Amino acid sequence: MANNQNKIFIVGALNRSGTNFLSDIVQLDARFEPSPNIGEDYFLVYSDLLETYCKQTTRHWGKSWREPNNTGSQDMIKAIGESLLSFSLNGSSCSQHVVFKTPRADNLSNFFKMFPELKVMLLVRDGRDTVDSFLKSFDNYSFIDVVKLWVKGVESILSFIEKCDAGSKNNVLLLKYEDIINGCPETVNKICDFCSLDPISVNINSIQDMPLRGSSVIRGGSKEVHWGLESKPKDYALQGKWRSWPKFKKILFNLIAGNTMKKLGYGKA
User: Fold this and answer.
1) Buried b (16+ CB within 10 A) or exposed e, 102-115
2) Residue ranges of domains in the chain, CATH in brackets
């Protein structure tokens, strides 16, 4: 597939980290569109099964495919990654500048095996706000379970970055949700440079003027969270809702996630 350099992946540590928000920012540059057939692709999340399939299949092939280093398996998973991109754009004229997004970082280690030419933006958010928003948005999860999911997602992202080789690191950008919503000029410039965005269209003012999408609080009269656009109320707080937690909840969060929060530079609850 041509023009893979114009295809950007966004991966969040956990749902409610702001992947839709970051995708909308990229799309302030009118050249970019979301994947037309798939909202959140989850291409990587179950890719451990795909990796097993490729290894198990190619071990039955001729020796020339298996050596050295099981190159047949590596070639196969790369070909499947390319096919997934084509599949997601099937029947669409959207083929030049595309944003893909997934709110989970499971099996992120397979990213460059499947998409060796693509860029990926990794998005983290204060775990307390992520957990708070997640619990307000989705049922059937306990507080402890969601905190552990957040830790797992962040540790997956940090491990992925640590293990990237020098060449791959140029195609990886780690972002904090708070730096974006607080209008950090350096962060906005990094996003523009990384994605080759038009800085006239994508700037601090245009980002802060964006409406809300998928807010766990502002639902436009709907009882459930939706992903349509909603006007952002004046002085609406995009962070810090966890501060109303009871003390025991803050202590419990710190016990489970304190070390991971420290790695990201966040403080204690």
Assistant:
1) bbbbbbbbbbbbbb
2) 4-126+166-236 (3.40.50)
